[in-house]
Amino acid sequence: MIITFTANPSIDRTADLSTVLERGGVNRVVAVHDGPGGKGINVSRALTLAGTATTAVFPAPAGDPLVQAVKEAEVPFSLVERDVRVRTNLTVTEPDGTTTKINEPGAPLDADAQRTCLDALLAAAKPGDWVALCGSLPPGPSEDWYAQMVAELKQAGVRIAVDTSDAPLIALAGDLDTAAPDLLKPNGLELGQLVGADGPAIEAAAENGDFLPAAQAARKLVERGVTAVLATLGAAGAVLVTADGAWVGNPPPITPVSTVGAGDSSLAGLLLAFTQNLDPAECLRHAVAYGSGATALAGTGVPSPDQVDLDRTSVTELTLD
Questions:
Q1: Where are the annotated segments for Disordered (predicted)?
Q2: Among 129, 137, 188, 206, which residue has the fewest nearby CB atoms (within 10 Å)?
């Protein structure tokens, strides 16, 4: 079982433009896509399409449009009932795949609601299951809330993945001695923040085919107790680093449509492969192929297995020493 937690869920609205976005001008939308959003929900959507057992845990009012959208996607879920509507996030995509996101802050979670969310995760998971803590935090929780959750979930014997950014990610990095997750999924910029490196330089190097800076930065996190680090590096691919080595994954050729949900699909592909006990190279192949499959879809699209090109996704081992 893979349980996902989305602290700050959303309705994701994607507006497709026929021309380049003009700031301050009138922009004509040619298509609009609405769907259930939030990083953990996206992960569970991809896992559901793959036939993998998953439960999405998230806070929302019982009658919120998000709940109906999750039901329509046939994603199993555990609802933490709240009385404030779920936010709507707007994504604007241009013909070349350029994506602009405008995100609302989300509904507040007080201390009682935070405890209820954690209790829901503990009730859904059993020892050996994966729990993925995904996305930004809404108003209310402290910046180290994910770190606190990791520490308590570890005591329950579950395996933990974290995919977040900014202050919650930095707070988690400061507590790795007691709250090191089994999997951490930063992008290049976030990887730089975590280890005090130059994130833009890491991404630029990867774009030029040099994945060593990303792998070396990820290894620092492994040395601090994180079991595996998946660093997603946009169109260049991704790096997976564990105590056993480092691997680089390069995506298959695609026509980009929208990058929204690509990182979530990468996480879903990796967790799917982990549950199948595949070797690290094959796990990375699944992660990169799933992320690329999402990029070729409109809106907050997540790919089904027949939209994932494993055969043309290449993986090579990287020597760090």
A1: 301-321
A2: 129
